[in-house]
Amino acid sequence: MAKKPLLEFTGKGIYCAQGKFYIDPWKPVDDAVITHAHADHAYPGNKHYLAHQHSKEVLFYRLGDISLQTVPYGETVMKNGVQISLHPAGHVIGSAQVRVEYQGEIWVVSGDYKVENDGVSAPFEPVRCHHFISECTFGMPVYQWKPQAAIFNEINAWWRHNAQQGLATVLVGYSLGKAQRILQNLDLSIGKVYTHGVIENTNEALRRNGIILNDTERITPESVKEEVRSGLILAPPSSVGTSWMRKFQPYSFGYCSGWMAIRGAKRRRAADRGFVLSDHADWDGLISAIDATGCESVYLTHGYTATFARYLNEIGFDAHEVHTLYGDDEAPFEAPQEENESDDTGPVKKVSPPIGGGDLGGAGEEVS
Amino acid sequence: MRSFANLFLSLDETNKTNEKVKVLKDYFNSVPDTDKMHMLALFAGRKPKRQINSTLVRKWAIEASNIPAWLFEESYHVVGDLAETMALLMPLHSGNSSKTLTEWIAEINNLSDKTEEGKKIWLLESWAMLDSSERFVFNKLLTGSFRVGVSQNLVIKALSEISGIEAATLTHRIMGNWMPETYSYAQLMQDQNPSDDVSRPYPFFLAYPIQETSEKQKSAAELKIALGDESGWQAEWKWDGIRAQLIKRGGKIFIWSRGEDLATDKFPELHPFLNALPDGTVLDGELLSFKNGLPLPFNVLQTRIGRKNLSKKILEESPVAVIAYDCLECNGEDIRYKQQWERRQILEQLQAATPYPELFRLSALIQFSNWEELGRMRERSREMIAEGIMLKRKDASYQVGRKRGDWWKWKIDPLSVDAVMIYAQKGHGRRADLYTDYTFAVWDGDKLVPFAKAYSGLTDAEINKVDYFIKRNTLEKFGPVRTVKPELVFEIGFEGINRSARHKSGIALRFPRILRWRQDKPKEEADTLDSLRALLGE
């Protein structure tokens, strides 16, 4: 009889039967280990949460008064004899890969990750394991990121140009992760940074958590429009096309996302500028990260899973796609969202119907 | 090439017309004259000749990207543009080539002398010296698929602002037979006589739909409000053929289609009538297949359009004639400034003098005393093998391009059926990586029979919802095509319907498009093949 795997894919999330806990469950469970605080990974309704210490205040802000244990990277937590530890994923502040070990068998759940050091999140660290559960949002070879320094040169030059032309600069990125990454890499000699309330709430939560961020000023109904227009306005994707944004006219509006790498997606967004800046690993990043784990098998959760799995198998990995976790193969951006902002915003997110648990309910089968 | 690639990037970075014009002017002001002419040729839709076939370009791109062929194809479906896919798949690096657009195009044109191996070496070396945005435009040049998000009008506007020459004049000067290698920027800017080039057509005057952007046609009462008194207007049938300009100058004849394709050789049966016209004559009209004095449906003409060799059989089955409706040049004089009714008189005189009245026909004026009466005539358009009615202001001059005001088309309402979507494919351009190209079916007993493909008609929000449905309801994948669970019902509109031996359903539609998404209808209530056949009117 085949041994039951340590982690399995169920209708509620990734489950460890031995340890009796779930990782990033999307239906309420008793014990949840959370990779990061984005809405499609940290759902409300669980009895108990375990997450990285830098996710603490953001989780309280987003999920309210929850029962939460937080730990630093590398510290071991025992659950029913299973060792759990969190390791930097480099996706956003407080994001973690979850390492699970029992009787010498090691699994790692990547959550979302990127391999480039963004200077804000703890940089990604490969963790040796037998089984690696990886995202592959950008698992197509057309996605190759330039170093972020090059992108921030473009962003700063664009801001400077707008300031000279008398245009307000509105830069859109989701509020946990992208917003702070942008904030910490802007050339603040050009001007001040103003924030939409949703972003500033997240900044405040992070500051309460001891994270040092550059100065920002929250935009309120009392803000003087002309002052705000002279700076850079950080806004979440949900603000695009709203009257809130229109009041800063005339402005130039930029969008930061990995999807901006494709001309068609960029044109669909109708942003004035699309900056290819992603918090997910690109094609080479994914392959190098998977390779560095030394894993025997890799399970691909969300992104271009079918294509990426086929390629990995061809180059000698034992790769499996997991169909039903976090949405469909080509639609990583359609996961249920709060304010459309918790993941790298894909081209079609604005109208995505909520998945809820319903669509995923039949996903109880195991993969191995 | 760097400036040309930057031009592309900058045009992509703004949606505002004025900024686009500024970007174009900056480009013109910063590049050599020869580059200007090449750019103009490309933006006016003149593709350089394809020197390496796209199978080879693909094959070598796959080698240069170091990925398996299937992954290249998958990437192409995600990106939706071959040139862009190839540019994205090759290793990132910063370019180090200083060659101009003119130099690159000259190199491409010289490839015809090279062996296949020589072409490959040249191509791999070229890719290696360009950065990814340069590679993208370079690939566009190479594959001859140059479509830009900027209209020729904007390019002309920029040139006009730089040179002070009127846009209409420039538009005319870049029509017809010219090559960027031999037609210089100085010549373009020089005062010149249009008859310097006997083949040069005039820019076509195009009508606006009277209902503007709505799918719903205007009623006679609305027409009265929009256009005023009937007496100021002439009405003709809107013929469904190939719009063409026919030229006789200096003893030579030319037939230009609307896409600025020289089509003289494609219509040999018209040559006698053209040769019999007085020198210095330019006519505007519609080419249609005729038999026994009656126009045949467009699909009859369609069978001969793409043919390289016109067999005797085709010429017999689909003989072409012209329905002329305007005269732009008479006795070598450009008469576009004259009023519509004056040009009509001249046209009628020319027609009266032709020894070939079967080939040179007049688009008859429809007699009507009020809009209601014309509205009733419009209902008969399909019997006339027409698409509706054209309205022309009697004192209108012949203008350049699509203009509101003096020429309107008042089309018939489309025919429509409710159909079930059964296949889907990803789109291109701004619809890349979204399922936007659908195949529709109607019921034949308990089977669904595909009968039409349509790409347009949904809003972006609807496309997103349909895409979401398709990704979750795929039954099978055949390469890029997905078989979708039959569930969604759409109202499909089309201009005409004909029998076809080439289609499974036995029918072919003209201009099918989605009129609306029938979210209220279950698939069982979609139409049947019999209801489609009934529309054949047989």
Low-confidence stretches of chain A: 327-368
Radius of gyration of chain B (CA) equals 26 Å
CATH topology of the largest domain in chain A: Metallo-beta-lactamase, Chain A
**At the first level of CATH, what is the class of the largest domain in chain B?**
Alpha Beta
Largest interface: A-B, 34 and 37 residues
Shape verdict of chain B: globular
Estimate nothing, just give the exact number of structural domains of chain B: 3
Annotated CATH homologous superfamily of the largest domain in chain A: Ribonuclease Z/Hydroxyacylglutathione hydrolase-like
Shape of chain A: globular
In CATH, the homologous superfamily of the largest domain in chain B goes by the name: DNA ligase/mRNA capping enzyme
CATH architecture descriptor text of the largest domain in chain A: 4-Layer Sandwich
Structural class, from secondary structure content of chain A? alpha/beta
Task: Describe, in plain words, how this protein is organized in 3D.
The complex is a heterodimer of chains A (368) and B (538). With 368 residues, chain A is α/β, with parallel strands linked by helices. Chain A has 2 domains: 8-143 and 279-360, Metallo-beta-lactamase, Chain A, CATH 3.60.15.10; 148-275, Rossmann fold, CATH 3.40.50. Chain A is 23% helix and 22% strand. Chain A contains 9 helices and 19 strands. Chain A has helices spanning 56-63, 148-165, 178-185, 197-208, 225-230, 243-246, 263-269, 283-293, 305-314; strands spanning 8-9, 14-16, 21-23, 31-33, 48-52, 68-71, 77-79, 82-88, 96-102, 105-109, 131-136, 168-172, 193-195, 217-218, 232-235, 251-256, 273-275, 297-303, 319-321. A 7-stranded mixed sheet of chain A has the order 7-8-9-10-11-18-19, with helices on one face. In chain A, strand 1 (8-9) and strand 2 form a beta hairpin. Chain B is an alpha+beta fold. Chain B has 3 domains: 2-143, Orthogonal Bundle (DNA ligase i, domain 1), CATH 1.10.3260; 205-411, 2-Layer Sandwich (D-amino Acid Aminotransferase, Chain A, domain 1); 415-534, Beta Barrel (OB fold (Dihydrolipoamide Acetyltransferase, E2P)). In chain B, strands 4, 5, 6, 7, 8, 9 and 10 form a 7-stranded mixed sheet that branches. In chain B, strands 14, 15, 16, 17, 18, 19 and 22 form a 7-stranded antiparallel sheet that branches. The longest helix of chain B is centred in the first third of the chain and has 14 residues, at 17-30. Chain B is globular, with a radius of gyration of 26 Å. The model of chain B has no long low-confidence stretch (mean pLDDT 88).
